[in-house]
Amino acid sequence: xxxxxLFDPVSCTYTYLLGSRRGGxxxxxxxxLDRVDRYIQLIRELELxxxxxxxxxxxxxxxxxxxxxxxxxxxxTVMGAESGVDVVSxxxxxGDRVEIEGGIGLDPLYTPGHTSESYSFLMGxxxxxxxxxxxxxxxxxxxxxxxPRAQYASLFGKLLKLPDDTLVYPAHDxxxxxxxxxxxxxxxxxxxxxxxIDEYVExxxxxxxxxxxxxxxxxxxxxxxxxxQDAIDAKGWSLTAEDLLRLEERGDAPILVDLREKGERExxxxxxxxxxxxxxxxxxxxxxxxLLHELARSARRPIVFYCAFGERSAMALEMARAAGIxxxxxxxxxxxxxxxxxxxxxxxx
Length: 349
Ligand code: FE
What we know:
Elements: E1 2-8, E2 13-19, E3 25-29, H1 36-45, E4 49-54, H2 66-73, E5 76-80, E6 90-92, E7 98-100, E8 104-110, E9 119-123, E10 126-130, E11 133-134, E12 137-138, H3 148-157, E13 167-170, E14 180-181, H4 182-188, H5 197-205, H6 215-222, H7 230-234, E15 238-239, H8 241-249, E16 255-258, H9 262-268, E17 275-276, H10 282-286, H11 291-298, E18 303-306, H12 311-322, E19 328-331, H13 334-340
Parallel strand pairs: 3-4, 4-5, 5-6, 10-13, 15-19, 16-17, 16-18, 18-19
Antiparallel strand pairs: 1-2, 2-3, 7-8, 8-9, 9-10, 11-12, 13-14
């Protein structure tokens, strides 16, 4: 396995790059915008293909690298279901799995408290704890809907229930520590030595910390990470859910191409009559000789890409158009918008 812990000295953020092998797919956790050039260089040097970029929560101390990595590598952006970010490609909750090839999978754990939308990600012998559990500390709970009671529950009810030898990889460290274990934190983390939830709340309510220097810049920027889709709209390449409903009513339904992963389809349902062509295969599928290229050529109907929220479909559409598939569009806002417009959803089985 490829496992790299990268450090941003300005915000003391740890970023993690994971992959199964040289030449394979990779994912990155909590990338920092200012370090994106470095990540891309390393990804290239290790001959990796970045396919997913995850933020554990909306950061207040640095601008996230999610948007820039998506724009430069066409990777999928991932955050928790509760996140207030305008658009990400994929939202996950407990029970979902964030997977890349080579058998690498992260299990999301909803661990609110530092923010109301904080997640940790468990991967076998290690857990990425974001700012929920730090080495000999815990993340502050005094802004962004932070809640010491929720954090106590996340710590004592979830993270500390993991096996003692589980490695703890936090999103920050200000003292130079890089890794700990659940057992070590239970024993030596002073914040965890409380006799009640009220005592924990008392400690967390009296930290009297200054706001992060970057907060006024970072939070608004991190809430607007979504792919700018206006350019695609302006070209007339977007179809709204209402447009699609009208076409279907008229009997003019296009060929619907679902770009989501198998697990998303199973859990969230599909648009009736759609075909499945996972986003990761788009480059192959749209080039001449590829499945979608040939489908588009032989069919009389246009192709409409869709995904969860419209981000993957916007990127796939750009690739399709560049590969010469002219009668192609995307469903703005994805399945979410379709559902909100009253569109029918089918189960896959
Ligand atoms: Fe944070």
